[in-house]
Amino acid sequence: MNILVTGSNGLIGRYLVNFLLQQNLQVVGYDINMMENKNIKSPYFSFEQGNVDDFSRLAAVLEKYKIDIIVHGGGVSHPKGFENSPDKIINTNILGTSNVLEAGRLFQIKKIIYLSSAAIYGDSKAAKLHEETIPAPASIYGVTKVTGEYLAKVYYEKYGMNITSLRIPFVFGAGRVTHDPIKYILEKALKGENVIEDKGKDQKIEYIYVKDVVNAIWLTINNKEANGLTINIGKGNLTSTEEIVSIMKELFPGTVFKIGPGDFGYDEIPPLDCSKANEVLDFNPSYSIGDGIKEYYNLLKS
Fold first, then answer.
1. pLDDT per residue over 155-164, tens digit each?
2. How far is Cα 27 from Cα 18, in angstroms, rounded to an integer?
3. Which of 5, 134, 197, 226 has its CA 20 to 30 A from that of 61?
4. For domain 178-204+237-268+289-301, which architecture applies?
């Protein structure tokens, strides 16, 4: 089985590539930057530099390696990324996803897994977000991710392609580059600095540890019943910054944590209903928020 991972240098991509290599699968990383992939020493791994909005380059890679499965995580992957350059988000996320799907059709790829986002729901007032909840994205990023889902759905229905979209909330773990409250607080404390902020204590986010996301992708790769479905992948509950600080205090007993009321400016998306993930994929997160943060801490310290 030959698997292409787009966005192979992103947080999810890096962990996924390493996991797939542990299964002795042939893996091709595809990313605009080589970064961490250059350190991978495995006869099962190849890296190709390229952008998902470059159709010719992408198609050449599919042909060269006789790819069977694509996990598409390439593109802008943060709700606040390139906020001042919406054309960048649109070109990369919408055109890039369109290219992956069309190249997949032309080269008869056996399965495509599209990594979508809980950002497609926006500031919904629902108590729990089901896959059938009407999307109401509140950001350009969210719009691009739901557009990718719609494209995937049409390619599945019109061309009979095996495609699954996974809606993923806020992913945390060692190696994350873009901002998130856990990363910010943990890295600041590791530097020996006190964590003092005017606001952010009340921000509530559904977090999921990166290794749980990789497990969900692996289950999807090996599941025929998921074809054509959109599935929420999460923990099903929100965590406040105040709760995160409580965990950090155990790790850094000598550090002062003082974060004022209010949020960090992220959409307050209600928790995901993840019953379909359990029923179809037999997926349940293995890491609690505390377990994930503690492993994250240990990896950064090592």
1. 999 999 999 9
2. 9
3. 226
4. Alpha-Beta Complex (3.90)
